[in-house]
Amino acid sequence: MAPKIRSAGPITPQKPKSSHTVYTTRHRIRFFDAWDTRAPGLSLRQFCQDRDPDFGTASRWLRQRNTFGSPAYRRTRRLSNKLGRPPIVSKEQCQMLVSPLRNPVRDQAYKAQIEFHKLGCKKRSLQARLKACTKGGQRYKQAYIKKEISRQNKRKRQYIFFSDEAHLDTSSQAQGYILREQGTRTDAENIQERGERTGVKLHVFAWVNWWGKSKLYFYHDEEEYIERPPRPPKPRTRKYETTDEFEARLREWEASLPQEQVVKPKGNAMTQKYYTETLLPVHAKALHQARLVRPNGELKRWLFQEDGDPSHGKKKRGMAQVYLDSNWIPTLVHPPQSPDLNPTEEVRNILKQRVRRRTWRNIEEYKAVCQDEWDKITLEEVRARIIEMLDRCKSLVKTGGAAIKSDLW
């Protein structure tokens, strides 16, 4: 053997065989034929010791043949769920486009946004990607609001005291919660007795305007009007009737008279005298204090709005109207039984909704809860209701006096 010399060059090592073998349909058919004709008693592990494939692959092929049958003889390739070319706009870019903090040109057209962010795609491609990667992302109509009430509407309504009375049921609470396991709601230890409805127990009143609101006042008229059942008319003598017959009918009438019954008052009634002596002085004092504030040295004409409750004396000139005239308080013409045109009604509804979420044990705690929730009502919430007055008046005229409903109230 001739000695090796340097000019022969180094020997390049051969590339080792890859451990990953791609099996074709022909490999599968040969394996199944050999397995079906194997020697009796030969296990799968012994069968795979001196031939391909390995034990794991052979086990998988046999399971596939038991499940799918003859299609397992053919080689199957994994199919991608995403067909076609990869998208140009990624999911992260779509999330960025709909983010108010990351996309300063959301109000521009699609082409302008594509050029600004250098996406490099067409308009239709961007629309399809937004629909697939976001929750219905697309260009919708812009919503607009007015940050401030219009000058004409503000000039009319910023110097109006809106007043109203409300009647509260102290037994109206939110449904309670209890910690328990699922399916044990009807167990005796998880059931509590609900208190009886006591009806209207508290009466409150307050005023609101564009610049502020009063505290919540509680009142109760001890001289509430009590309705009693009517008496049947007393019989009269007839032309062709004897004295005995008339006396018999008279005794029958006396027997049919209703007995004296203790009738409880309704709870939400108030006399005009009580309204004039108790509630009106509070409103008059607030109006006089508002007149002392003169912006730019101008004296503003404040108006007072109240509903058509009988105690307000709207049908004829009574004690309430005399009191208002003597204190130089002009009133705003307001239709009776029209809560849709009084912002105080909706502010009161806010109070009732929030009070129902709280709990209390007695009347004093209930009053404290009402006052606390009333103080939490912001001036922005009050102004939002006053701003709607112009549109609500138009809607009321359009519907012919029917009840109206908006997003706020």
UniProtKB/TrEMBL annotation:
Domain of life of the native organism: Eukaryota
InterPro entries in UniProt: RNaseH_sf (IPR036397)
Gene3D superfamilies linked to this entry: Ribonuclease H-like superfamily/Ribonuclease H
Span list, region Disordered: 1-21
Entry's Gene Ontology molecular function annotations: nucleic acid binding
Name by which UniProt lists this protein: Tc1-like transposase DDE domain-containing protein
